[in-house]
Amino acid sequence: MTDLEYIEGLKKGDETSFRNLVEEHQLKLLRLCNGFVHSREDALDLVQEVFIEVYRSIHSFRGDSGLSTWLYRVAVNKSLNFIRKQKRKTFSLSNNIDNAAKLDLRDESGAPDVRMEQGQRDFLIQKALDSLQENQRIAFILNKYDDLSYKEISGIMDVSLSAVESLIHRAKTNLQKKLYRFYKKNLI
Amino acid sequence: MQCKEIHNDYIGYLDGTLDAETNSMIEEHLLSCNHCRDFVERLKSLQVTIEREKNIQTSETFFENIQDKLEHLPKSPDVKTYSLAFRIAASVALIMFGTWMGLWIGKGFHMNSSLSNDYKDEIYYLYDIQQGIVENNMLSDLTE
Ligand SMILES: [Zn+2]
What we know:
Order of helices and strands of chain A: HHHHHHHHH
CATH topology of the domain at 1-88 in chain A: Rna Polymerase Sigma Factor, Chain: A
Oligomer: heterodimer
CATH superfamily of the domain at 1-88 in chain A: RNA polymerase sigma factor, region 2, helix turn helix motif
Number of helices of chain A: 9
Helix content of chain A: over 70%
Order of helices and strands of chain B: HHHHHHH
Largest interface: A-B, 49 and 36 residues
Largest sheet of chain B: none
CATH architecture of the domain at 1-88 in chain A: Orthogonal Bundle
Number of strands of chain B: 0
CATH class of the domain at 1-88 in chain A: Mainly Alpha
Bound molecules: zinc ion
Structural class of chain A: mainly alpha
Helix content of chain B: over 70%
């Protein structure tokens, strides 16, 4: 189905159009949201909310950008909102976890042969990713989790191609710096 | 032995996005530097983690869950269909109403419980409208 057919169908409240739209776009949005929230359950919830918002506001969709671009934008916004709300909610808890992680780092640093389980390695890599500056993180996740081209990303983020290039390059070098610290402590 | 010339682009080297010149510069360095060779090897964990997260599966009831959530949404008017001018006017009116209520209460008005609940509803309503505006403007935050 084309964008126009989807939009017409959704405006008429046609269930098949909506179902097809969901089928076609759910996986890529799930990958994207998972890159931000690192939890299948939360990603499923968020993407469902994305489709609900799109369904309810289809009448105000002006079509300046493609439907897919719009879906991605809503998904990015919902993910960032979710993270902000979660940060506020668990501020003191995450502080404690951070402190515990720092203690762990100190303990592990003296033992060169200790390899962490993949789960813990995932956790540290996710932490490094989460600590990237927001725009770098968005560009990086769109590029790496959904294999989007720089051109597609520039459409979604509404910035120039060279800005996307620079954001992704900075994301990679910053990520490398953060991961190098873990490497020196033998944590990745 | 640690390396004093660690290149910034090892992630780009691993995902094959570097230009030919930078690529061969890095390859040359890796031939002679154990430290960087080992680090680059460990950096492959990044791609492993990303691949694992990308492998997320949907749920069998995904669409049904959406329908379910849609059915249980409150039948409130769609905030986005209001014009900006109306939303601003409504916000101002509600703020004035709130201020007036506050002054009234301050004068020693004795609140009964039903009026105090009405008052709370107005405050939540105001918050919802502002939330709508904030969400609409989110993308400009992304690109600033
Ligand atoms: Zn080196």
